[in-house]
Amino acid sequence: MQKIFDFFTQNNEFGKNIGVKLIEVKYGYAKVQMQVKKFHLNLAGVCHGGAIFTLADYAFAVASNSFGKVSLGINANISYINAAKEGDILIAEAKLVDESNRLGTYEIKVTDNNKVIALLNGTVYKTTKNFEELKNDLQ
Amino acid sequence: MQKIFDFFTQNNEFGKNIGVKLIEVKYGYAKVQMQVKKFHLNLAGVCHGGAIFTLADYAFAVASNSFGKVSLGINANISYINAAKEGDILIAEAKLVDESNRLGTYEIKVTDNNKVIALLNGTVYKTTKNFEELKNDLQ
Amino acid sequence: MQKIFDFFTQNNEFGKNIGVKLIEVKYGYAKVQMQVKKFHLNLAGVCHGGAIFTLADYAFAVASNSFGKVSLGINANISYINAAKEGDILIAEAKLVDESNRLGTYEIKVTDNNKVIALLNGTVYKTTKNFEELKNDLQ
Amino acid sequence: MQKIFDFFTQNNEFGKNIGVKLIEVKYGYAKVQMQVKKFHLNLAGVCHGGAIFTLADYAFAVASNSFGKVSLGINANISYINAAKEGDILIAEAKLVDESNRLGTYEIKVTDNNKVIALLNGTVYKTTKNFEELKNDLQ
Known about the structure:
Four copies of one chain form a homotetramer.
Chain A: H1 2-10, H2 13-18, E1 21-26, E2 29-35, H3 49-64, E3 71-80, E4 89-99, E5 103-112, E6 115-126, H4 131-138
Antiparallel strand pairs in A: 1-2, 2-4, 3-6, 4-5, 5-6
């Protein structure tokens, strides 16, 4: 899995720019981390929902792409449960719940020191292509 | 509304850092814009779902806070419909659908030149506080 | 479309049993109706969320299957906006928002006399089979 | 909890009419059961999404109302993972994930003999009223 880990670490511009760090990847599983900085704050001075979503979504993307073929996110539902503050170190863990030939469903939990910050449920459409093939298609 | 417009423009660290620009705000309505740059790309070389979510969520936040009291996002559901590419200028428009004393529901549409990129539905819990009061509570 | 209308009217056991009536069907569109009866009430004496969901879901199913090939619902997100009471005549309208080769996204609005009761967003996976072929596969 | 169990068993018209049976209730938890019959079938001859939703929603309602004060469902997101067929005995288990003063978030899993059929995530708004008081307000 080291190769997969390296691939995900090196190829996600947006995740890197937001400060998301990949911790672990297994088939159908990913764990990522982000420390809340001034950069991530919203109007109320707490971590922006979009930043929490991006952290969860990053874990979701890595987990759902851990099998080597590209999975495209088609739907995600997030519930915000507790606020996250500057300095908090947030962890997002994504797990495959179940899948069929074409679709996969994942649950992603965002926590701060075991306090639940948000829950995301996501569905992917599983393509039969790898990333290089897909890039050519999409562009 | 100029004062509200200025407030939202000056006080959202994360939105600014992501490249989201506020275009218009009315009661229960907001329009924002973001150009997709290399910064926003994901593993497949198209705009990251988290960046699209953040754009939509920013419009949602401004629209739901346009009445002067703080509204907290409690749930958001996003459906990704078409991919957005580097160079695209994305627009997100948020509209209040309906509200009760305590809750409000918004629809946010993200488009690129009238092509639908994503749809987000969001629910807020309406507090009775302004931003300064809330900051003191949350921190 | 009369043939399609008849097909949907005659073949949905659950919809019929719940009291859902098909009003109109066009490509990518359906309108259905249900009067709230004692049958549909929940613990609080108003229309059960499951009954409102079923009404919306029925419109969603007809609209997404109006093209002749089977579409399978993979995700639905419902926001409850106002309560519906015994005697109310609820209308659900489903509209196709956008689609790709394999996926379609629909918005369904449930109203009582123009008051919004609930909003549902749904995603389908479009198979290449008709109903008879699918029945054989699933059973 | 016997009193609460009896209350929920006797007062939900729609659940009873659909064939949902309450198995167990604890604070923030409920387990319910429904056997898929011809009554529940959809156009494709498998269990209607609305029936699966109603089963999950019933567990959600009981769990979120197990504390004695009324909780109102404001949002629910369901992902359909596997089809359920006539004869299947479906179980739905609802668990409180986390809550604040005013809001609660629940996860509901629908299974058939340990195979996941659907996942529902739901958010409630917690009122300070009991059912009798609420009925008077709503009607």
